[in-house]
Amino acid sequence: MQSVRTLVLATAKFGSKVQSLKASRQLRFSSTFSSTSGFRAVHSSEVKHQGPVAKPKDEEKQQVVLVNAIRDIDGSMITIGTSTGEQHQYPSVWLRDNCQCPKCFNTTMQSRTVDWKYFDINIKPTHVMAEENQLKLVWNDGHESDYDLNWLLERSFTENVRKEWMKQHYPMTRISWGTVDFNKILKKYDFNDILNSDATLLDWLENIATYGIALIDNTPPQEDQLRRVADRVGFIRRTQYGEEYMVKHQPGTSNLAYTSGNLQMHTDLPYYDYKPGINMLHCLVQTEGTGGENQVTDAMHVAEKLKREKPEVYKVLTETPVEWCDIGQESGYSFHSLYRTPVILNDSNGDFLRADYSQQQRDSHFSVPLDQVIPWYEAHAAFTEELYNPENTVYFKLKEREILVFDNIRLLHGRKGYEDKPSNTRHLVGSYVDWDVAYSRIRVLRKKLRGHIRSHLSSTPVQKCT
Amino acid sequence: MQSVRTLVLATAKFGSKVQSLKASRQLRFSSTFSSTSGFRAVHSSEVKHQGPVAKPKDEEKQQVVLVNAIRDIDGSMITIGTSTGEQHQYPSVWLRDNCQCPKCFNTTMQSRTVDWKYFDINIKPTHVMAEENQLKLVWNDGHESDYDLNWLLERSFTENVRKEWMKQHYPMTRISWGTVDFNKILKKYDFNDILNSDATLLDWLENIATYGIALIDNTPPQEDQLRRVADRVGFIRRTQYGEEYMVKHQPGTSNLAYTSGNLQMHTDLPYYDYKPGINMLHCLVQTEGTGGENQVTDAMHVAEKLKREKPEVYKVLTETPVEWCDIGQESGYSFHSLYRTPVILNDSNGDFLRADYSQQQRDSHFSVPLDQVIPWYEAHAAFTEELYNPENTVYFKLKEREILVFDNIRLLHGRKGYEDKPSNTRHLVGSYVDWDVAYSRIRVLRKKLRGHIRSHLSSTPVQKCT
């Protein structure tokens, strides 16, 4: 391992590999929207043939040695050079803000402790050294900071490094699917494996994040089993319908799901700002007669199709706010929930982020100018037609002991009407887990099982259903 | 009460009061952002002198009589005329979609039951009648629909009616405040009143929604009392730190709040997409020595000031995404939470919607192009300076039995360091309730106590502190 000590206080001459200070301002603001950030949308056909597993970047980095470090004339920028000929620039203010010494950073809490009430953004280093693969700085207030080369390289402001980091940490490439793809993308997991194997748990979560749906089988036939699954992920998301809700025919209910009638395609709780992320339905008793089939459609797939084939319809669906409403009572708790958002919500790249759709929860109040009403109904009808188009929608009758798990802000679900008999009362239990919690678990498990939190999609082909 | 029956199948001649079909497309898309929708920002100085209580619109409407109803030549639009000379237009497709008959609408569930799989958006009425203050339609498939005049008027597509409805249902006018206003806007409520009086509960919730802060006093000194308050609103919002978290010095903790050190100004859980809405801190034991004071700043007030005085700084703060991160363990639960959003998030009107700020949870990864780094640090320093500016920030030492309640996506809070003694261990309990749940409760209580869900701010002056 080579180490080179340099101390440069003169004007720096930057090499051609130094990134441009005028780098284009390519911000992706999906994170500013009301949903999980960083989704990348891909169609299932695009990921079926991929190359071999890429060599992890960490291994490559171990070969790299810090060869020099220089500051620019006013001390506001530090440039490091490596044995591979790369140069990386770091603003002094960022370096001081991220000093890793025990006074400035608490490693136990993984928290910055620099007090910003007294922080001087004009602070400059007086001494800049490259020593034993560390950048060492002495600041003009006497404070000293050391930075490991690998730590710096992982935080490089070059476009490639930033893109790689984003891919690793917001890795939710979502792959859309139609009916023809359904058998390929639907995986079934064993209940006990979910509970006992971290690898299975991770694979299951990644599949829900990617395709929006997965099944669990061999679930014990008790009402409290979803809680065990949710606890493996993190914890249940409570809503106005409780932590677990019983889906069976309940006379006098204030919710259409609690009847035996046909249940039109919908997302759950569109009338919340914080819509539940992952929806789980555990089948305890299925109807022995006809009906009771579940239906699901990937709204992302439908949205992409409309965007491609009927851009005007897509535009109307993404720009017309709709009132979603739920007024009622549940176990003595009265609610009047209301939220205003379009049927399709785009991220700021114009890509599908979320769907809200429910005839039963769409308010009769429609607070838009009159001239937008008929165009919206036309667009809504076109969207609905695609939702029920056999090319896009699938029906299946959930079996007892199965749990249907799906992305509630992406997939629409419905149910065919059925008829209970005295000896056969259809009975499902429902519960939710939020994406914040599921993504956290994915990152923790990736780190634990793979040593990094890179997406499985960057190296593996699409999973086949079992 | 006069009733006039008309049957008009010829071309309609619309009066001058008919709203323009070319109404301007004034959409406010705050609802598409990652926060509660429909906020309107006002400064406290703007609402101190208001007029008397306005006459409720419902009373006025009782005087109005339906005098005629006509359809246009192709049957796509119905116009009704009232005894006050007003005319209101309703698209036929909207009327059919919102038929209130038992086949199309379930009043128990307050849900549309029209099956959209078979819905014909080109359906037209063949007969249009105004009878006994009802619009009566016969459709070309033979279906019949009746609509009460008041029901129709409440759903008019005219700009005034839509604005009034929005004001009533998304009524969260938020009033910003600085230090000089603090004593005027801070109200203190009695714990038992919150628990036993719906009027107090509503007043308290409206004050938190409006000013972002309120105190509760006389709370019993047990760790489970926040749950009683949360249950009055709806239910607790669970996070990775549990449903209730203990804020006291805990050696080896992974969270800076659980130390006795100085706690810089911050919002809680910026690393969640779904950030907790209302933050409650119950003081069980306060330190008897120096320190331990809480500090709060209204980030909306600071944001408005920066927008006015330093628009470039404001722009950078709203456009530069920042990584917020929390990696750790809590009661055996491992998490790796991560979210990317600017320090100030605007709604699509360019007004303040939400703040995310935390030195301790801001990641050292800063995934923006190099040329954005220094401008962001400059903006962040300007924001921080205003947060600690004595004109904007207030300190107060929470007393035992008090609960500090504040809007976690609007107010920043901090704490001065303190020192525990063997006989005096500072001890607070924290818990959250989401805005979805709080707003639902506000609507339910307004309806119950006032018969409507209009904002108290439209008719009453600013509350004085007690």
TrEMBL record, chains A, B:
Its cofactor is L-ascorbate; Fe(2+). GO terms for molecular function: 2-oxoglutarate-dependent dioxygenase activity; metal ion binding. Keywords: Carnitine biosynthesis, Dioxygenase, Iron, Metal-binding, Oxidoreductase. Residues 75-152 form the Gamma-butyrobetaine hydroxylase-like N-terminal domain. GO terms for cellular component: mitochondrion. The keyword Metal-binding applies. Belongs to the gamma-BBH/TMLD family. This is Gamma-butyrobetaine dioxygenase. It comes from Cryptotermes secundus.
